[in-house]
Design a protein that fits this description.
42% helix; three-stranded parallel β-sheet; six-stranded parallel β-sheet; Rossmann fold
Length: 281
Amino acid sequence: MAIRIDGKAISAQIREEIKAECAAFVAETGILPGLAVIIVGENPASQVYVRNKKKACEEVGFHSVVYELPEGTEQGELNALVDRLNTDPTIHGILVQLPLPKHLDETEVLLRIDPNKDVDAFHPYNVGNIMIGDYRFLPCTPAGVMALLERTGVEIAGKNCVVIGRSNIVGKPMAMLLLHANGTVTVCHSRTKNLAEITRQADILVVAIGRADFVTADMVKPGAVVIDVGMNRRADGKLTGDVDFASVEPIASAITPVPGGVGPMTITMLLKNTLTAAKKA
């Protein structure tokens, strides 16, 4: 039976470290790390995420501001707010909660954020730095996965690592981070042929495809470490990942549950990026 990788416990441990580091930084400099979160519209899931981010900031001693803009906000208004935050010395991290309403251009907004305040690491400048391995910030979910692996004692160097998913937010940066840690990396996606054949070779399998219970036991090598980034809601309202946990757990050596695995790490890594931004500023 696999070890269950407890994202809640590891996340709580890292937050305590961030809290102590923040207190020391404030004592030394008098500067309070500041995060601004912008949310446009009434998306219920986004509102929950934003509340959780604000609460997390308060827990570790950060200054945080949430800008709740109406659904009908125009591009110019949103751009102007980002411009203002770029020059605000009390704000070290800027996060625009996605998705935005359809009439707004996400790319235009993300490009507008000062790369030094881009704590989501979505700006092409930061993405390029991740590619060459010389980065200040890491995208929060892949960074969270790396922290889980590291703190669980999983050796990446020389291992066969398979990532299912090629999004700019998780799949692509995840592959780069595993590569930087000397893993041998294969990226699979919806067009991959003989997918199960490839995934069965993985010592470390990271699944971020957005399809409930997609990875089943026959796709997993016995003894593999399985990281489930998926977050899907079943018809009965229960959360489930991209991995069929019940069938895969008995054959994996370690596995992340959903919920309670990768999820708690994402906001924790956002806090880490914000503290880094404050120190660099």
